[in-house]
Automatic annotation (TrEMBL), chains A, B:
The keyword Isomerase applies. Residues 87-213 form the GST C-terminal domain. One of its GO terms (molecular function) is maleylacetoacetate isomerase activity. Pfam families: GST_C_2 (PF13410), GST_N (PF02798). CDD domains: GST_C_Zeta (cd03191), GST_N_Zeta (cd03042). InterPro entries: Glutathione-S-Trfase_C-like, Glutathione-S-Trfase_C_sf, Glutathione_S-Trfase, Glutathione_S-Trfase_N, GST_Zeta, GST_Zeta_C, GST_Zeta_N, Thioredoxin-like_sf. Keywords: Isomerase. Residues 1-82 form the GST N-terminal domain. Belongs to the GST superfamily. Zeta family. This is Maleylacetoacetate isomerase. It comes from the Bacteria. Its EC number is 5.2.1.2. It is an enzyme of class 5 (isomerase).
Amino acid sequence: MVYTLHSAWRATAPYRVRIGLALKGVDYDYVPVDLIKGQQREPAYKAVNPQGLTPALDIGELVLIQSLAILEWLEETRPEPPLLPKDPLDRQIVRTMALIIACDIHPLNNTRVGRYLNKELGVEQAAWMAWIHRWIADGFDALEPMVAEHGRGFAFGETPTLADCCLVPQVYSARRYEVDISAYPAIVAAADRAAALPAFAAAHPDRQPDAVL
Amino acid sequence: MVYTLHSAWRATAPYRVRIGLALKGVDYDYVPVDLIKGQQREPAYKAVNPQGLTPALDIGELVLIQSLAILEWLEETRPEPPLLPKDPLDRQIVRTMALIIACDIHPLNNTRVGRYLNKELGVEQAAWMAWIHRWIADGFDALEPMVAEHGRGFAFGETPTLADCCLVPQVYSARRYEVDISAYPAIVAAADRAAALPAFAAAHPDRQPDAVL
C-alpha cells in the first residue's frame, strides 16, 4: 500500500516529514490540509488526526502523527541512509538540535497559537510578528554554537540527520517571517547546503501541490 | 564520576529526567535552579546551559539538555528496564504520547512564555490561567483515547515508558493549575498508578531539596 501524507505546504512539521520520506526513498500520496480555511479543525480531518494538527501519515494499519515520532519510526524501519549517528552521545546531540526546534520554537509559532493570541488575547499582527521573532531568535541563539561546533557541512557531521530535517523548515519559516538570520552563519550555511539536495528540494513548500505561489 | 542534574523542583521537564534516572537506577547530585528568582537567565547557569532552560545533566564529558533527548540517551546506554517497547509501531505510539506533552502542551505553559505574555503583552493572571488550561485540555483530549486504547495499567502497556515519564509530570502540573482532569479517566488512572512506584515517587517535586512546601 502507498502511504498517504496529510500535509500543508508551508507548515514546518509536515515539511520535516516530507524530507524524511524523501531521504528514505518512501513514496506517498499527498493530501493537502488547508490551514487558512481551518480544515484541520473540521470533522473530516479530525477523523484522520483527532489532535487537529499536521502532519498525519496514514500507513494503512495506523495513522502516525507527531513529526519527530514519525522520523524516528522511519529511521528504525528503514536504516539507510541513517538519519542519526551511531554513537549514543552524538545521537543525543542530534536529537537535542531537533528538539530545540520542535519543542522550543515551532509550537509557540504555529497556527493554533497565533489564532488564540489574536482571538482570545487581542494580539495584533505586529505583536504576533515580534512573538514569532522572539522564539526563533531564542532557539537559534542556542543552536548556532552547536551547529558551529558539530557541523561538518550539515547541522551535525557530514551527512543529513534529524537535525537537518527540522532545521531546513525552520530556516524557511524564519525567512518567511523576515527574521534577520545573518547572526546565524553556521545555521544558514548548513540549512542552505541541505536544502539544495534533491530530497530536501522535493520537500520544499513551493513544490507541493497545494502551494500558493 | 557522579552526574549532576540541574533541576527545578516543580518544572516538568527536569521532573521527567528525574523519573528516567530513577527508573534506570542512575545516581546523581542535585543542583537547584531557582526559576522564580530567574537564576536560569543568569551567567552562572547560562555557562551550564546556554539555552537557559532546565534540565541540564552534566555527565562530565558533556552537558546534556532537552529532556526527551536525555531520556532517549538513557534508554540507549542503559537498556534495562526498557522505557520503549520493542515493536517500531509501538515505539512510534509511545513517542507520540511523549511528544504531545513535550511539544504541544509544556512549551506553551512554561516560565519564559508566561513571563513574555505578562511583560510584553500585558496578559494578566486570569488570562494566563485560561491559556494554560487550554493547552493542557487540547493535549489531554488527544492523549486520553490513546491511553484508553494502548494502556494496560500504564500509559502504554504494562510497564512504564517514556510516555509515563512525561505524563506523570504533566498531570502534576494540571493539578497544580487546578485543571479539571475528571474528563480524562484513563490518563489519571495511568499517571496515578505510575506515580505510586518508588522511582516516580522519588522524583516527585515535593521530594526535591529545593521544594517549597
